[in-house]
Amino acid sequence: GLSWWRGQDLNLRPSGYEPPEVRLLLCVTSAYMSLAGLSQLVPAIDGGRREARLPVGTGTTVSFGGRTVIRCHPACPWPTRRPRRVVYSSRHQPNWRGGPQWSRARQDVTVNYIEVADVRVGFERRGHGPPLLLLHGLPGDGRLWRHQLDDLSDEFMVIAWDAPGCGRSADPVDPYGTSEVAQCLAGFIELLELERPHLLGLSWGSGVALELYRIAPTVARSLVLASGYAGWAGSLPSDAVAQRLDAYLTAARTPPQEALRSWGSGLFSPTASVDLVEEVLAICSDFHPDMLAALARSFAETDLRSVLPTIAVPTLVLHGEADTRSPLSVGKALHAAITGSKLAVLAGVGHASNVQAPLAFNAEVRRFLRSVPA
User: Which of 279, 288, 280 is nearest to 168 (CA)?
Assistant: First the structure.
């Protein structure tokens, strides 16, 4: 098996392999998975009984059973020309922080990875048919879409990505904000060869979808803006934006187990079960602190209201009636500004509508997507 650890180190666990096969695996990995940007490579052999660290390019060797299983030569640099399209899969992905893995979410999933503009992006893909790309909120990652992956994949090829700096994706080296995430999303769509996907963005993800439409209006076949914003600056009063940003920056400086403890009431209506709230907060608390702060700062300055009148693809505005983070008035404003858009309101449902009311949420999404011309 192969998995990534802390977004920087590669953790190889070739359990049961003899050293020649370990050597082959490491060679294939180094040649085709673009390790040039990693600071250290950590091979763990035979269940972790022998571990070693070596800075890339030092000429250090690692041996096991009397055989050299990896060698880095200073005179032989790592590949500088990255492959255009690198996709590989991993099962049993470790939690980014090394804490409890996956909470109550699925334990046995296949996570795919692709390198987009030097950023390793994780995603799940399920089903066949017209592509439906799911864009999560902040904080959060693609694990929050499990109900949509399970249910909608009978009719669509459903893809849930982890945005750069979120969940199982790596942190970008360069400064990143809403625009950079949208540019990465455009590259992600191109590399996966998705032909005019439907875009479904929840909360912050809806802002990413709108920004992608701004920079590349021909990419999306349709838009679903769930619990959406035209950026915080474009949908919320300035004092609410300041309070929201302060809460995110405080969370980024707080131990993850405590950071989002008070957020449950804002994500759900009072009808949500305790188990559901705990599951979602466990996933959301698995954030990357620096990127959480950077993305929140950027979204606090994002105002996409000027984009709304230009939208010329079928659009569904899907909102929870009891949403307190993005009140229904925000959804109605989006609907009013997007010519020809549809508005669907989920009664008694809060901000995290895709997990609080997945059956109703999925039914509205399916009904809308079926109405979009092929």
Answer: 288
Alpha carbons 96 and 328: distance in angstroms, whole number? 34
**What Cα–Cα distance (Å) separates residue 345 from each residue in 114, 236, 263, 311?**
35, 19, 22, 21
Alpha carbons 274 and 356: distance in angstroms, whole number: 11
**Residue pair 311/213 in contact by the 8 Å Cβ criterion:** yes
CA 306 to chain centre: 26
Gap between the Cα atoms of 331 and 215, Å rounded:
22
The pTM for the full model equals: 0.75
Q: Using CA atoms, how far apart are residues 279 and 104, in angstroms rounded to an integer?
A: 6
The pair of structure tokens assigned to 372 is: 């979009």
Q: How far apart are CA 199 and CA 196, in angstroms?
A: 9
User: Which one, of 139, 108, 111, 130, lies nearest residue 280 by Cα?
Assistant: 139
In the numeric block, the tokens 């040039």 are attached to: 36
- Cα–Cα dist 132/156, whole Å: 6
The gap between the terminal CA atoms of the chain, to the nearest Å, is 39
pLDDT in tens, 72-117: 333 333 233 333 455 555 553 434 333 333 333 444 678 999 999 8
Peptide bond into 139 cis (omega under 30): yes
266 vs 239: CA distance, rounded Å: 17
Integer Cα distance of 261 and 246 in angstroms: 15
Instruction: Write down the H helix ranges in the chain.
Output: 19-32, 146-152, 178-191, 204-215, 232-235, 238-252, 256-259, 264-267, 274-284, 289-300, 328-337, 353-356, 358-371
> How confident is the model at residue 259, as a pLDDT?
81
Say which amino acid occupies 2: L
- Angle between helix axes 289-300 and 204-215 (nearest 10 degrees) is 60
